[in-house]
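re: ur question from yesterday

yeah so i grabbed the chain u mentioned. its 172 aa long if i counted rite. heres the sequnce exactly as i have it in my notes:
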Amino acid sequence: MILGMSGATYTFLHVLISLAGIGSGFAVMFGFLTGKRLDGWTAIFLVTIVLTSLTGFLFPVEHILPSHVVGIISLAALAVAIPARYVFHLAGAWRWIYVVGAVLALYLRRRGASVPESACPEGARSDAERAAVPGCSTHRHGALYRSGHSRSEEVPCRAGRYCLIGRISWFS
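ran it thru and got these structure tokens back, copy pasting raw so excuse formatting
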């Protein structure tokens, strides 16, 4: 249970907030390209991106994951971008600082759009069962990657067989 919700419900809510952030972020980026401020879209974007990063930290995990690092970097970028927009009103250098921070936050939100392995249903052995929860890896190497094993190490797969992990990248 996370905030009184089941893991699947919390994950679904987290993914919905994330999708709202990504969608509104594209609208804000369109505003950047056309020279329009789009104040409403900007507020929705900033609130949902911050909420997505914050809710990502509430998933039960045993150690820091790459998604946590992405969330920390995203929140740091937003900690500069939000005052640039609302306190300094995009005056002078604050305009490009805001744009860089907002674009970085949107990029990182897209790159960090996954949920921790612990949020996936326990006992879900098939790809179909895992795919029922948004963001859960349906690839065996994704599940093994998130569990923190190093490359070329034999690790038991969910199906009970052994897998040989090849090259693992932090952000793939």
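noticed a couple things. Confidence is low (pLDDT under 50) at residues 131-135, 137-172. also Residues 7-34 form the longest helix (28 residues).
anyway ttyl
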